[in-house]
Amino acid sequence: MDQSSILCPRFAKAMKMMGQRWTGLVIYQLLTGPQRFCSIESSLPISGRLLSERLKELEQEGIVKREVFPETPVRIEYSLTEKGMALEPLLRELEKWSQNWIEVEN
Amino acid sequence: MDQSSILCPRFAKAMKMMGQRWTGLVIYQLLTGPQRFCSIESSLPISGRLLSERLKELEQEGIVKREVFPETPVRIEYSLTEKGMALEPLLRELEKWSQNWIEVEN
DNA sequence: TTTAGTTACTTACTTTATGTAAGTTAGTAT
DNA sequence: ATACTAACTTACATAAAGTAAGTAACTAAA
């Protein structure tokens, strides 16, 4: 478990983030536009507990922006920052790959 | 936890795979060419236990190919299949994104 | 002919992450 | 007061990951 070749720390960090359950799908969902908590929650098979956790992490990374609208009941919108938007090509590549190489069923 | 919009099952499956710890890094490492177990193990901070598990999963998905050379001691080489190679653009996108948007330290 | 060395794994066990469900907070509306 | 809503939290069970030691098959050295 000692590394002989050095992994680029930026790349390793990005991998650690994207290689976390739900992160990619949450960002993918936000590519369709700003959305509130319950909307993301119902578009993915993720629980509120984890969605809350992931959104917090993504906000800290500067990938997601959280905006509070003091309406009734309160509306909170999540959207992608420029850094988050920059992930679109990556997600489109995964989309393409999955269309070309994954068959469903199992 | 009910989905109102339907997630494409191919994309969801690809996400589940790539959004697993180490999967992306193992494939990234194999992009540099066929390699044996101990070589991958020492190039990433992954343990033998998990590397063995991931390689088995990737082999089952048809992303990685395992070849046994009955030398002394036995040599086993892992390489990417065509399906695995097709993930290169995706990994290059992540590489680019990380160079542009991630700063190291923390 | 014991002893040690090599690669490629397994097994056993601990810690961390995730899944599930119920509960909380703040602000109306009835 | 009671109920309703959105957005979370908390508590607890299960699954996945981390760590370290062990195994199998073979060779090479003492």
TrEMBL record, chains A, B:
The keyword Magnesium does not apply. The keyword Transcription applies. InterPro entries: HTH_HxlR, WH-like_DNA-bd_sf, WH_DNA-bd_sf. Pfam families: HxlR (PF01638). It comes from Pseudoneobacillus rhizosphaerae. This is HTH-type transcriptional regulator YodB. GO terms for molecular function: DNA binding. Residues 8-106 form the HTH hxlR-type domain. Keywords: DNA-binding, Transcription, Transcription regulation.
